Each structure stands twice: as structure tokens, then as C-alpha cells.
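Q: For a teaching session next week I want to show students how multiple molecules come together into a single three-dimensional assembly. I've collected the sequence lines for a complex. Could you give me the predicted C-alpha cells for the whole thing so I can convert them for display?
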Amino acid sequence: MIETKQPFYLDSFVSVEALDDQSILTLIERALEYKKGTRDMDFSDKYAVNCFFEDSTRTHKSFEMAERKLGMNVLSFDPTTSSVNKGETLYDTLLTLQAIGVDLFVIRHKEVEYYKELIESNSLKAAIVNGGDGAGQHPSQCLLDLMTIYEEFGRFEDLNIAIAGDLRHSRVARSNMQMLNRLGANIFFTGPKQWYDSAFDAYGVYQEMDDLISTVDVMMLLRVQHERHDKTKERFLEEEYLQQYGLTQERENRMRNHSIIMHPAPFNRDVEISGELVECERSRIFNQMENGVYARMAIIEAVLANK
Ligand code: CP
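A: Of course. Below is the structure for the complete assembly, covering every listed component.
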């Protein structure tokens, strides 16, 4: 069991790579305590705003659920009806919201590392949590994925974990490959070569899906991110993709008894995963969503603890 009693706080939560292993494990353990109901915090004097400049269902709503479970007050913010449309910058928007009493910002933005300038300013004292920066990182998704794997296996060391699909465009994959490699898992990559980058070689090895499927403990599928593709250059046929790179029923039959399927969602049924497998026995996709609430409670506690 990981010791979580010592004081632990973070100024912000924008990237998991910046955290040491003990901090990651502390966050996971706290998230599991929230899930079991053995941990409780009251932040009813604190105010949160979730600023989502890119679309989201899970991250946006599970942060809101986490905030409400911690007793926080949540102000709504819709960029399409805000003064962003009059040219107000992100920095000025946050300064404004801080001035009226906001303590916590959860931000999703298309610009990679949008948070750097915000954190380097001396004016923003409210906590910043990264809900996803373009094709950069998605650290709260990484934490909930780690929590789901740890909950299942009780360790990371020597687990065989495959990350499959649209690797190049996935901010989830980037954080996960780095962290899982650091925590001792054996990482394998699979999917179309055009979406593979030699930079991934530092964290794992590429193999064909059919060579991997019977050896992995975790099959972590990624969404095909059509919106980030250059459609003039890439030819894409859904049925062909499923048969060549996706998780079909035939491949699922060859997985080890204890192996699990993960996907950050939203999923494209019958593209990266055969539709009927989304809710199959070894799927942990909806457990990931549930764990997202508790992982985010642990993150919020850590960034508000010192405020
Ligand atoms: N997994 C994930 O980030 O989903 P949303 O885009 O719906 O938040």
C-alpha cells in the first residue's frame, strides 16, 4: 500500500511527466480512496470554472462531477458566448475570472502548451489544471488510465501494454507511453505506420497487431482522430482499418484470460474496435470513465491544498 498521509500538494497540474513516481502513486492511491469512500474533502469555499475551448464530454463533465463531489461551487463558461469573441485573450479571460473570485481553472485548448505563459506570469494565483492541449498532453486522462491499470493489476512493473492506432495525433498516447515506460511496463505499439513516429522508439517497440494480441495484459486502443488528419493525403476505409489494425472479435478471442481492453473514448465503433466489444467482459472503457471522476478529485485536492 502506498503511504499517502504526508502533506502533498501541487501548484498546478499541466503535465504528468513533471511529477516524480511517488507523486503519481500518491495521486492514484488518493483516487482509489475517493472511490472506496474512505477519503473526503470539503472545498465548499472554493470556486471552479471549466474553460473548454475544444469539444469534450468526459473530461468536462467528470471534472464538474469531481468539483461538485468535493463541495465546490462551479461557474459555467461558454467560450462561444464569452468576450473571447471580442478578441479577449486566454490570459485576460483568466485574470478576469480570478478577479471575481475563481480559485481553480480547468482548461482545454487547441494550442500545445498554452499553459506555459499562464504559469510563468506572476499574476495568476488560481490553480491551473490541463484538460488537454491540442496534440500535446492529456494528463488527467493519463492519471485515470494509470489508476485503472493499477486497480486491475496492483502494479505496473513487467506488464505488457499495447498502445494501438492513431499514435501520432493522440495526446493520450504521448503521456501514457512515457509514464508507463517510466513505471516499469513493457510498451508495444501497433497501428498504421504513417501514424507512427520514430520518437516513440524511446518508450517501446512496434509490432503488428496479430503478433501482439495473445501476449498483452492491456490492449489500449486509440480513437482514429479524423479531425486532425489531412484528408487530401490520407485514404481511409473504416472496414479495412478494423480488419488490419483494429480489435476484431477474432483477435479478442486470442487475448489472455486476464487481459483487459482500454480506450480513452469517444470510440469509433467498428473502426478501432468491433462494436460489440465496447461493452464486453474484458472492456474497462466505462470503468475508465468512472475512475476519471475520482482521479480528478485527487488532482483538484492536490492543487487546492496549498491555496
Ligand atoms: N477521453 C476524453 O478526453 O474524452 P472527451 O474528449 O469527451 O473529454
